[in-house]
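User: I'll paste a sequence; please echo it back and then give the predicted structure.

Assistant: Echoing your sequence first, then the prediction.
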Amino acid sequence: MPTATFRFYAELNDCLAPRVRGRSFDHAFQGTPAVKDVIEALGVPHVEVDLILVNDRSVPFDHRLDDGDRVAVYPVFETLDVATVQKVRPEPLRETTFLADAHLGKLARILRLLGFDTVYAQALDDSAIAARAARERRIVLTRDRALLKRSAVQHGYWVRSEDPEAQAREVVQRFDLGRTARPFNRCLSCGATLTPVDKDQVLPRIPPRVRAWRDTFLLCTGCAKLYWKGTHHRRLKTTIDRILGKPASGINQGESAG
Protein backbone atom coordinates (compact mmCIF):
# COMPACT_ATOMS: atom_id res chain seq x y z
CA MET A 1 0.00 0.00 0.00
CA PRO A 2 1.42 3.47 -0.88
CA THR A 3 2.60 5.60 2.04
CA ALA A 4 3.41 9.30 2.50
CA THR A 5 5.28 10.98 5.36
CA PHE A 6 3.35 13.85 6.94
CA ARG A 7 4.40 16.71 9.23
CA PHE A 8 1.90 19.25 10.56
CA TYR A 9 3.04 22.53 12.10
CA ALA A 10 1.97 24.84 14.95
CA GLU A 11 -1.69 24.79 15.99
CA LEU A 12 -2.65 22.26 13.32
CA ASN A 13 -1.36 19.63 15.74
CA ASP A 14 -4.37 20.36 17.95
CA CYS A 15 -6.51 18.50 15.39
CA LEU A 16 -4.34 15.39 15.23
CA ALA A 17 -4.32 12.21 17.28
CA PRO A 18 -2.00 12.69 20.29
CA ARG A 19 0.43 10.00 19.13
CA VAL A 20 1.42 11.93 15.97
CA ARG A 21 1.41 15.51 17.23
CA GLY A 22 4.57 17.52 16.74
CA ARG A 23 6.46 14.93 14.70
CA SER A 24 6.74 13.32 11.27
CA PHE A 25 4.71 10.17 10.73
CA ASP A 26 3.87 7.77 7.93
CA HIS A 27 0.32 7.41 6.66
CA ALA A 28 -0.85 4.74 4.23
CA PHE A 29 -3.52 5.45 1.60
CA GLN A 30 -5.21 3.79 -1.36
CA GLY A 31 -4.93 4.94 -4.95
CA THR A 32 -3.85 8.52 -5.61
CA PRO A 33 -6.09 10.67 -3.37
CA ALA A 34 -6.14 14.47 -3.32
CA VAL A 35 -3.91 15.78 -0.55
CA LYS A 36 -6.90 17.71 0.86
CA ASP A 37 -8.84 14.49 1.41
CA VAL A 38 -5.98 12.85 3.29
CA ILE A 39 -5.34 15.93 5.43
CA GLU A 40 -9.00 16.04 6.47
CA ALA A 41 -9.06 12.29 7.07
CA LEU A 42 -6.25 12.86 9.56
CA GLY A 43 -8.47 15.36 11.40
CA VAL A 44 -7.39 18.78 10.10
CA PRO A 45 -10.14 20.89 8.43
CA HIS A 46 -9.07 22.48 5.15
CA VAL A 47 -9.96 25.97 6.40
CA GLU A 48 -7.15 25.72 8.98
CA VAL A 49 -4.52 25.09 6.27
CA ASP A 50 -2.71 27.85 4.39
CA LEU A 51 0.24 26.10 2.74
CA ILE A 52 1.06 22.54 1.67
CA LEU A 53 4.49 21.42 0.55
CA VAL A 54 4.90 18.06 -1.16
CA ASN A 55 8.52 17.12 -1.63
CA ASP A 56 9.44 20.75 -0.84
CA ARG A 57 7.15 22.13 -3.56
CA SER A 58 3.97 24.10 -2.82
CA VAL A 59 0.83 22.40 -4.15
CA PRO A 60 -2.95 23.05 -4.25
CA PHE A 61 -5.57 21.02 -2.40
CA ASP A 62 -6.30 18.87 -5.46
CA HIS A 63 -2.71 17.66 -5.81
CA ARG A 64 -2.61 13.85 -6.04
CA LEU A 65 -0.37 11.95 -3.64
CA ASP A 66 2.14 9.32 -4.72
CA ASP A 67 3.96 6.65 -2.78
CA GLY A 68 6.93 8.06 -0.87
CA ASP A 69 5.77 11.70 -0.90
CA ARG A 70 6.89 13.98 1.93
CA VAL A 71 4.07 16.33 2.96
CA ALA A 72 4.45 19.42 5.17
CA VAL A 73 1.24 21.21 6.19
CA TYR A 74 1.20 24.74 7.62
CA PRO A 75 -1.50 26.91 9.22
CA VAL A 76 -2.40 30.47 8.27
CA PHE A 77 0.66 32.69 8.54
CA GLU A 78 0.46 35.97 10.45
CA THR A 79 4.06 37.18 10.19
CA LEU A 80 5.94 34.94 7.73
CA ASP A 81 6.12 36.11 4.13
CA VAL A 82 4.89 33.28 1.90
CA ALA A 83 4.17 35.42 -1.15
CA THR A 84 6.45 33.35 -3.40
CA VAL A 85 4.69 30.02 -2.83
CA GLN A 86 1.26 28.70 -3.71
CA LYS A 87 -1.04 29.15 -0.75
CA VAL A 88 -4.13 26.94 -0.73
CA ARG A 89 -6.43 29.36 1.04
CA PRO A 90 -8.70 31.71 -0.94
CA GLU A 91 -8.03 35.43 -0.82
CA PRO A 92 -8.65 37.01 2.63
CA LEU A 93 -12.06 38.50 3.26
CA ARG A 94 -12.24 42.27 2.96
CA GLU A 95 -14.35 42.46 6.11
CA THR A 96 -14.12 40.21 9.14
CA THR A 97 -17.62 38.91 9.83
CA PHE A 98 -18.52 35.73 11.65
CA LEU A 99 -21.13 33.02 11.86
CA ALA A 100 -21.08 31.13 15.17
CA ASP A 101 -22.77 27.75 15.38
CA ALA A 102 -25.42 26.73 17.91
CA HIS A 103 -22.86 25.82 20.60
CA LEU A 104 -21.16 29.23 20.63
CA GLY A 105 -23.92 31.60 21.70
CA LYS A 106 -21.87 33.20 24.48
CA LEU A 107 -18.92 33.69 22.14
CA ALA A 108 -21.22 35.37 19.61
CA ARG A 109 -22.41 37.77 22.28
CA ILE A 110 -18.84 38.65 23.30
CA LEU A 111 -17.80 39.26 19.69
CA ARG A 112 -20.77 41.59 19.29
CA LEU A 113 -19.68 43.36 22.47
CA LEU A 114 -16.30 43.88 20.81
CA GLY A 115 -18.04 45.38 17.79
CA PHE A 116 -17.82 42.52 15.27
CA ASP A 117 -20.64 41.54 12.93
CA THR A 118 -21.55 38.09 14.25
CA VAL A 119 -24.50 35.90 13.33
CA TYR A 120 -25.54 33.29 15.90
CA ALA A 121 -26.78 30.28 13.94
CA GLN A 122 -28.82 28.79 16.75
CA ALA A 123 -31.52 27.29 14.53
CA LEU A 124 -29.42 26.26 11.52
CA ASP A 125 -28.08 22.80 10.74
CA ASP A 126 -24.57 22.27 9.37
CA SER A 127 -25.66 22.41 5.75
CA ALA A 128 -27.50 25.70 6.24
CA ILE A 129 -24.57 27.16 8.20
CA ALA A 130 -22.14 26.32 5.39
CA ALA A 131 -24.48 27.74 2.75
CA ARG A 132 -25.13 30.99 4.61
CA ALA A 133 -21.46 31.50 5.43
CA ALA A 134 -20.55 31.06 1.76
CA ARG A 135 -23.36 33.34 0.59
CA GLU A 136 -22.54 36.13 3.06
CA ARG A 137 -18.77 35.52 3.03
CA ARG A 138 -18.62 34.91 6.77
CA ILE A 139 -16.03 33.05 8.82
CA VAL A 140 -17.56 29.98 10.44
CA LEU A 141 -16.73 29.57 14.13
CA THR A 142 -17.39 26.13 15.57
CA ARG A 143 -16.25 23.44 17.97
CA ASP A 144 -17.25 20.84 15.37
CA ARG A 145 -14.38 20.05 13.01
CA ALA A 146 -16.70 18.07 10.74
CA LEU A 147 -18.56 21.28 9.89
CA LEU A 148 -15.32 22.91 8.72
CA LYS A 149 -14.60 19.99 6.40
CA ARG A 150 -17.63 20.81 4.24
CA SER A 151 -16.49 21.97 0.82
CA ALA A 152 -18.84 24.98 0.93
CA VAL A 153 -16.96 26.42 3.93
CA GLN A 154 -14.15 28.60 2.61
CA HIS A 155 -13.29 30.48 5.79
CA GLY A 156 -13.54 29.04 9.28
CA TYR A 157 -11.90 28.39 12.59
CA TRP A 158 -12.09 25.48 15.00
CA VAL A 159 -12.45 27.03 18.47
CA ARG A 160 -10.25 25.12 20.89
CA SER A 161 -11.35 26.38 24.31
CA GLU A 162 -14.64 25.63 26.06
CA ASP A 163 -14.61 28.89 28.05
CA PRO A 164 -16.38 31.80 26.24
CA GLU A 165 -13.88 34.49 27.25
CA ALA A 166 -10.94 32.28 26.30
CA GLN A 167 -12.72 31.53 23.02
CA ALA A 168 -12.97 35.25 22.31
CA ARG A 169 -9.25 35.71 22.98
CA GLU A 170 -8.55 32.85 20.55
CA VAL A 171 -10.59 34.49 17.80
CA VAL A 172 -9.08 37.93 18.40
CA GLN A 173 -5.55 36.51 18.22
CA ARG A 174 -6.22 34.18 15.28
CA PHE A 175 -7.67 36.95 13.09
CA ASP A 176 -5.57 39.82 14.50
CA LEU A 177 -8.65 41.79 15.57
CA GLY A 178 -7.15 43.91 18.34
CA ARG A 179 -6.79 47.01 16.16
CA THR A 180 -10.23 46.78 14.54
CA ALA A 181 -12.40 46.18 17.61
CA ARG A 182 -15.05 48.82 18.27
CA PRO A 183 -16.55 47.88 21.64
CA PHE A 184 -20.11 48.88 22.57
CA ASN A 185 -21.03 49.48 18.94
CA ARG A 186 -23.42 46.55 18.31
CA CYS A 187 -26.56 45.12 19.83
CA LEU A 188 -25.79 42.12 22.00
CA SER A 189 -29.14 40.54 21.16
CA CYS A 190 -29.26 40.70 17.36
CA GLY A 191 -25.83 42.01 16.35
CA ALA A 192 -27.04 45.06 14.41
CA THR A 193 -25.26 48.40 14.80
CA LEU A 194 -26.24 50.97 17.40
CA THR A 195 -27.02 54.60 16.61
CA PRO A 196 -27.44 57.63 18.92
CA VAL A 197 -31.03 58.60 19.61
CA ASP A 198 -32.49 61.75 21.15
CA LYS A 199 -33.64 61.19 24.73
CA ASP A 200 -37.02 62.83 24.09
CA GLN A 201 -37.78 60.33 21.32
CA VAL A 202 -37.47 57.35 23.64
CA LEU A 203 -38.50 58.95 26.93
CA PRO A 204 -41.47 56.62 27.55
CA ARG A 205 -39.12 53.62 27.32
CA ILE A 206 -36.58 54.91 29.84
CA PRO A 207 -37.02 53.71 33.45
CA PRO A 208 -37.71 56.63 35.82
CA ARG A 209 -34.54 55.93 37.82
CA VAL A 210 -32.45 56.33 34.64
CA ARG A 211 -34.11 59.48 33.26
CA ALA A 212 -32.76 61.61 36.08
CA TRP A 213 -29.07 60.87 35.54
CA ARG A 214 -28.57 59.64 31.98
CA ASP A 215 -28.92 61.73 28.80
CA THR A 216 -27.09 59.63 26.19
CA PHE A 217 -28.89 56.69 24.61
CA LEU A 218 -28.31 54.32 21.71
CA LEU A 219 -30.91 52.51 19.62
CA CYS A 220 -30.38 49.22 17.82
CA THR A 221 -30.96 49.61 14.09
CA GLY A 222 -32.16 46.01 13.93
CA CYS A 223 -34.40 45.10 16.87
CA ALA A 224 -34.86 48.66 18.26
CA LYS A 225 -33.50 47.70 21.67
CA LEU A 226 -32.48 50.72 23.75
CA TYR A 227 -29.03 50.98 25.36
CA TRP A 228 -27.34 53.30 27.81
CA LYS A 229 -24.24 53.32 29.98
CA GLY A 230 -25.43 51.38 33.01
CA THR A 231 -24.16 50.05 36.28
CA HIS A 232 -22.40 47.03 34.80
CA HIS A 233 -20.49 49.00 32.15
CA ARG A 234 -17.33 48.80 34.24
CA ARG A 235 -17.54 45.01 34.41
CA LEU A 236 -18.05 44.74 30.66
CA LYS A 237 -15.13 47.06 29.98
CA THR A 238 -12.89 44.98 32.24
CA THR A 239 -13.84 41.89 30.24
CA ILE A 240 -13.05 43.69 26.99
CA ASP A 241 -9.67 44.83 28.30
CA ARG A 242 -8.77 41.26 29.27
CA ILE A 243 -9.69 39.94 25.84
CA LEU A 244 -7.98 42.67 23.81
CA GLY A 245 -5.05 43.12 26.17
CA LYS A 246 -5.42 46.89 25.98
CA PRO A 247 -7.92 49.60 27.05
CA ALA A 248 -11.20 49.39 25.15
CA SER A 249 -12.62 52.30 23.23
CA GLY A 250 -15.91 53.14 21.55
CA ILE A 251 -19.46 54.15 22.37
CA ASN A 252 -20.51 53.63 25.96
CA GLN A 253 -23.11 50.99 26.56
CA GLY A 254 -23.86 48.66 29.36
CA GLU A 255 -27.53 48.53 30.29
CA SER A 256 -30.59 48.20 28.11
CA ALA A 257 -34.34 48.08 28.08
CA GLY A 258 -36.46 46.52 25.38
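Residues 233-244 form the longest helix (12 residues). Residues 168 and 203 are 35 Å apart (CA to CA).
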